[in-house]
Amino acid sequence: MNMIVGLLSLVSFAGIAVGLLMCVFQSQRPRGKSFAFYGFVGFVFVFSFALFQGPKDSARATASSAEAIASQSPAPAAPPTYKEVLAKLKVDSLTWEKEGFGSIMKASFVIRNYSTVDVKDIVVTCKHSSNSGTYIDSNTRPVYERVAHNSYQAVIDFNMGFIHSAVARSTCAVDSYSPA
User: Fold this and answer.
1) Cβ distance 89 to 44 under 8 Å?
2) Complete edge-to-edge strand list for the sheet that includes strand 89-99
3) Global confidence as pTM
4) pLDDT digits (tens, 9 = 90+) for 48-69
5) Are 94 and 117 a contacting pair, CB within 8 Å?
6) pLDDT score at 41
């Protein structure tokens, strides 16, 4: 196989050389351009074939590639810590309203789990502020649902408990969880 690739490379180089030599003479210039062009195309073809030919000795190459993969593969990843998982739990799409004569907070939100661990019994804390931005109060409630890794769970009309009458804004976040 190496001999054929070498012979084809030699022929394509000869085609390029003959084509360029023919370009020197005015009468042979069109033919010389063709020879040089096809010699170049042949060389590119042979070069790309030789480049992607693959290993010469398949048994030795397989053994060496297996050793290379074994040496490059990272050690098994340690499971994420509690804080790492907690940092990847988010409360999104929060909407809320006051119910029960303006004294109860009903919230709808989505708990997103961007971690690689399934979680359950997620504790959500909502911090409330007034129109001026002053922190007024907070509510903390557990959501007894299971959220798979890289997934989400919608929580609709969840009773967050009593709320101050002056609350105008609220933000919610995950405080803790239990591994599922």
Assistant:
1) no
2) 89-99, 104-113, 151-162
3) 0.56
4) 666 666 555 555 555 566 566 6
5) no
6) 78
